[in-house]
Design the sequence.
């Protein structure tokens, strides 16, 4: 998971244009300046391109639920990458 978190951190830094951004699994959109609905879509697109995966609409919407965080996002990406392999 640490490797996925590191890879995701690179994507987050690019999308949010913040080279100092350090991700933690428990972080949510509220913890990251500028993470609004538009940036959420930009982030999804960047992750899809970086990892060569596609998200269903329900998955994208579900990532904004109250019980979701960076860790759950990383696990979803890791699962999709594993399924693709």
Sequence:
């Amino acid at each position: 998971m640490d490797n996925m978190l590191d890879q995701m951190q690179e994507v987050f830094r690019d999308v949010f244009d913040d080279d100092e951004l350090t991700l933690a699994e428990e972080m949510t959109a509220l913890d990251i300046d500028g993470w609004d609905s538009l940036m959420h879509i930009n982030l999804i697109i960047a992750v899809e391109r970086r990892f060569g995966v596609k998200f269903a609409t329900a998955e994208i919407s579900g990532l904004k639920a109250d019980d979701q965080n960076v860790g759950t996002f990383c696990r979803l990406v890791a699962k999709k990458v594993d399924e693709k392999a």
